[in-house]
Amino acid sequence: MWTLATPDFLHGLASLLYPPSCAICSAPLEVGEYLCAECEAKVPRIMPPFCAKCSEPFDGAITTTFACANCAHRTLYFDAAVSVYRSRGIVRHIILNFKYGRQIHLRHLVARWLVAALDDERLRERHFDAIVPVPLHPARQRERGFNQAALLAEWLSAHLSLPVCPALERIRCTTTQTAFDRSERMQNLRGAFRLRKKLDVRRLRVLLIDDVLTTGSTLSECARVLKKAGARSVFAATAARA
Fold first, then answer.
1. Closest CA relative to residue 237, chosen from 141, 105, 128, 136
2. How far apart are CA 132 and CA 137, in angstroms?
3. Backbone angles phi, psi at 235, to 5 degrees
4. Cα separation values, 147 from 98, 103, 127, 128, 224, Å
5. In the list 35, 39, 81, 120, which could disulfide-bond 236, CB 3.0-4.6 Å?
6. DSSP state of 135
7. Per-position pLDDT tens, the chain of length 242
8. d(Cα 79, Cα 76) in Å, to the nearest integer?
9. In 18-147, which ranges are continuous DSSP H helix?
10. Exposed/middle/buried for 69, CB within 10 Å: 0-12, 13-18, 19+?
11. Taking a C-beta distance cutoff of 8 angstroms, is the pair 83, 237 a contact?
């Protein structure tokens, strides 16, 4: 139920006062839509062939299952990480506005992209026991005002009728990853996450959620902690892949 304090109430009120328009080109839209058909058609979708482990697309004529160079020479602890869209152009613009522009209503669109990822054959027939969002460090969350992965997990929970389990906490605010290569990113994240006290993930089939996959280092470290704590499997889904 909406209350005066909820973002959904404010967004609903804004929709009454200001008719919905495309988040990219401002073309008029139906209520509940965020992109017009023309902008929707420009959303960069990941098409085969792509890495079975991390969804990195490959320019070629490969028809068999393969692992890309991103995965071949390092240990990744998730069973697979699935993304359907590239974090470029319109997708990148939407996610940046959602995360840093405080346009929280865009979580509905980003979450729909996550639902598209769940229709991938690597996830479609799988059964999950819990959705686990990738956590932010408390200082970063205070600065941003919310954890985008947690908001997406809550949306998916309602859509899939699966419980959200905030099993992980980030205990170390790591140096920005942008200057590091893949192996350095893994090392930088070591020990950054831990299982929350009194939370039991033993034998659980976990769906790990975040907004964007870059190299997979963050998802891998989260999966390592979950599996060390006894999770049966950890598959990851993100709205987009860098």
1. 128
2. 15
3. -105, 140
4. 11, 13, 25, 22, 21
5. 81
6. P
7. 445 556 555 555 555 557 899 999 999 999 999 999 999 999 999 998 999 999 999 887 777 788 888 788 889 999 999 999 999 999 999 999 999 999 999 999 999 999 999 999 999 999 999 999 999 999 999 999 999 999 999 999 999 999 999 999 999 887 655 555 666 667 778 889 999 999 999 999 999 999 999 999 999 999 999 999 999 999 999 999 99
8. 8
9. 37-40, 69-72, 89-99, 107-118, 138-144
10. exposed
11. yes
Give residue for tokens 């200057």: 179
- For residue 108 the two structure tokens come to 């509905």
Rounded CA-CA distance 148/98 in Å is 8
| Residue 132 tokens, joined | 């686990």
Q: How far is CA 199 from CA 43, 74, 114, 168, in A?
A: 38, 29, 25, 9
- 145 sits in the region (left: phi over 0; alpha: psi -120 to 50; else beta) called left
Residue 78: what residue type? F
Token output for 1: 């139920």
